[in-house]
C-alpha cells in the first residue's frame, strides 16, 4: 500500500488530529514529570535506608519485564483511545490515593512501593498505546517529525517544568504537587476520550479481517533476506477470537521473521545494556570523580535534558537531509564515543559536554528508531511488537546496572570506559548495517495511509463500514 501523502497534505503540517494526540500526551507527560520527582522526595521523607530508596528505581522498571507483553496485546485488542483513558484513569485514582495517604499521615514506604509498581504497570499500557496511535494519524514521511515533537515536549514538560515546579511546591506543601498530579492525569483521561475515531486502531484490525491474510507469519515474506524494506504483508494478523495466551508470542515471531528488525533488536538491546552499565553509578561519578558539588548535580542533569531537547529539534531535519540509516549509524557511534570520552578525560567540563552530546545522540536515535518500527510493523501488531521489544530491551537494563555497579567498585571511571568502548566497537561493527536502514516512507507494511486532511469522515455510534463488529 502506498504511504505517500498527497501534495496538498504537505501544507497542513502534522494536522489537527495529531495536535489532539500531542495535547493528550502532554497532559500525561506533566503527570509523569510530577510523579517521577515526587516519588523519591517522598521516599526520602519516609526512610534514609539507601537500599529501600534504590528499590523504587527497581520497582519502576519491573513492570516492563512483567507487563509489557500483556499490555501490548491489550493495545492491539482494545480501542487505543480506551487503552489511553484506562491507563490515565487508574493513575488518577493512584494520585488521589497517594494524596489521601499523605493527608492522613498514613503513607509508608511499603504503600509507596505498591503505588509505584501499579503506576509502572499502567505506564506500560499507556506508552504502548500512544506509540501505536501516532502512525494512525501521521503519514510515514512525517513519523520522525511527529515523534520528535512528542519526545521534545516530554523533555521540556518533565525536565524544565514539572521537576523544578514539583521540587519548589514540595517545600511549600506536599499536598499541592500531589493535587496537581491527580489533575494532570484526570485531564489526560478527558483528552484521550475525546480523540477522534481514526486514533482507535480499528481500521488496522478491519483491514486484517477483510484482506484474507493468514493468521500466522509467512517467514519467507517477512524475512527480507534481500534487504528490501518491505514488512510482511501476510504476517500475523490477530483475529479477535484468538486466545490471549497465543498472542503472547506474536511480537516475537514477527521480529524474528524479519532480518533487519531481528538484527536491530539484538543490537539495540546490547547497546542499551552497555549504556545502563556505564551510567549505573552516575551520581557517584559526578560528585566524586568529576568533583561537581552536590548543589550543582541538578544542573549537570539539566545539560543532558538540553542535549536531548536539541536532538529532538534536529532529528527529523537530519533524517530528511541524510537519510534515517546514515543518521542512526552516526548517532550510535557518537553516543558511544561521548561515553568513552567521559570516562577517559574525567573533568567537569568534559563530563558536562559529553553528557549533553550523548543524551542528544540517544534522543535522535530513539526518535528515528521509533519511526522505523512504526513504519515497518503493521498497525494491527504495533502493541505486541512494541511490548516484545521493550521486554527484552528494558528488561536487560537492570542487569546492565548491576554489572556497572560491580565494575565501579574498582574505579568509578571504568564503567564509562568499558561501556563506552564496547558501544563504540559495536557501532563500528554494525555501521554498514545501520546505514542500510530505509526511510519510513520507503517501507510498505501493507497498511493504508492515514487521512491526509483534517476533515475526518463522520462516524456514528455504530461500527464503521468494513470494520469488525467487536472490538476485543
From TrEMBL:
Top-rank lineage group of the source organism: Bacteria
Annotated segments matching region Disordered: 209-239, 442-472
Subcellular location: Cell membrane
Keyword entries, A-Z: Cell membrane, Membrane, Transmembrane, Transmembrane helix
Cited Gene3D superfamilies: MFS general substrate transporter like domains
InterPro entries with a match to the protein in the record: MFS, MFS_trans_sf
Primary location group: membrane
GO cellular component: plasma membrane
Membrane topology of this protein: Multi-pass membrane protein
An annotated Gene Ontology molecular function: transmembrane transporter activity
Regions that span the bilayer: 51-71, 182-199, 263-290, 296-315, 322-341, 347-368, 389-410, 416-434
The name this protein goes by in its record: MFS transporter
Native species: Microcella alkaliphila
Species classification: Bacteria, Bacillati, Actinomycetota, Actinomycetes, Micrococcales
Amino acid at each position: 500500500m502506498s504511504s505517500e501523502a498527497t501534495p496538498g497534505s504537505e501544507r497542513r503540517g502534522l494536522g489537527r488530529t495529531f495536535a489532539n494526540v500531542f495535547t493528550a500526551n502532554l497532559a500525561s507527560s506533566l503527570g509523569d514529570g510530577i510523579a517521577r520527582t515526587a516519588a523519591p522526595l517522598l521516599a526520602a521523607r519516609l526512610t534514609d535506608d539507601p537500599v529501600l530508596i534504590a528499590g523504587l528505581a527497581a520497582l519502576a522498571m519491573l513492570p516492563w519485564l512483567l507487563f509489557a507483553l500483556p499490555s501490548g496485546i491489550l493495545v492491539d485488542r482494545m480501542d487505543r483511545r480506551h487503552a489511553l483513558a484506562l491507563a490515565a484513569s487508574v493513575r488518577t485514582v493512584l494520585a488521589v490515593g497517594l494524596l489521601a495517604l499523605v493527608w492522613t499521615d498514613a503513607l509508608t514506604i511499603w504503600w509507596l512501593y505498591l503505588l509505584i509498581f501499579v503506576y509502572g504497570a499502567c505506564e506500560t499500557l499507556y506508552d504502548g498505546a500512544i506509540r501505536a496511535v501516532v502512525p494512525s494519524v501521521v503519514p510515514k514521511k512525517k513519523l520522525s517529525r511527529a515523534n520528535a515533537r512528542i519526545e521534545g515536549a516530554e523533555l521540556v514538560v518533565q525536565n524544565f517544568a514539572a521537576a523544578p515546579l514539583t521540587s519548589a511546591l514540595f517545600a511549600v506543601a506536599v499536598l499541592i504537587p500531589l493535587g496537581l498530579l491527580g489533575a494532570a492525569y484526570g485531564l489526560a483521561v478527558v483528552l484521550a476520550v475525546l480523540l477522534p475515531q481514526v486514533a482507535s486502531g480499528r481500521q488496522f484490525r478491519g483491514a486484517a479481517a477483510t484482506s484474507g491474510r493468514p493468521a500466522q507469519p509467512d517467514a519467507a515474506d517477512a524475512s527480507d533476506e534481500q534487504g528490501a524494506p518491505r514488512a510482511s504483508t501476510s504476517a500475523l494478523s490477530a483475529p479477535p477470537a484468538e486466545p490471549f495466551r497465543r498472542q503472547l508470542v506474536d511480537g516475537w515471531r514477527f521480529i524474528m521473521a524479519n532480518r533487519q528488525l531481528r538484527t536491530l533488536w539484538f543490537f539495540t538491546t546490547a547497546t542499551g545494556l552497555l549504556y545502563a552499565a556505564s551510567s549505573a553509578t552516575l551520581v557517584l561519578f559526578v560528585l566524586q570523580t568529576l568533583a561537581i558539588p552536590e548543589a550543582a548535580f541538578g544542573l549537570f542533569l539539566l545539560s543532558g535534558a538540553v542535549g536531548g531537547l536539541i536532538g529532538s529539534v534536529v532529528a527529523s531535519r537530519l533524517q530528511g537531509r541524510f537519510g534515517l540509516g546514515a543518521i542512526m549509524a552516526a548517532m550510535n557511534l557518537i553516543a558511544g564515543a561521548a561515553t568513552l570520552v567521559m570516562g577517559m578525560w574525567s573533568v567537569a567540563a568534559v563530563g558536562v559536554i559529553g553528557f549533553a552530546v550523548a543524551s542528544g545522540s540517544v534522543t535522535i536515535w530513539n526518535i528515528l528508531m521509533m519511526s522505523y518500527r512504526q513504519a515497518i510493523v503493521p498497525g494491527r501488531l504495533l502493541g505486541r511488537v512494541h511490548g516484545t521489544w521493550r521486554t527484552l530491551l528494558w528488561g536487560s537494563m537492570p542487569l546492565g546496572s548491576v554489572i556497572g555497579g560491580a565494575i565501579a567498585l574498582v574505579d568509578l571511571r571504568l564503567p564509562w570506559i568499558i561501556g563506552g568502548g564496547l558501544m563504540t566497537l559495536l557501532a563500528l561493527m554494525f555501521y554498514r548495517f545501520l546505514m542500510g536502514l530505509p526511510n519510513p516512507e520507503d517501507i510498505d507494511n501493507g497498511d493504508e495511509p492515514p487521512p491526509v486532511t483534517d476533515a475526518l469522515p463522520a462516524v456514528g455510534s455504530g461500527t464503521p463500514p468494513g470494520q469488525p463488529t467487536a472490538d476485543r
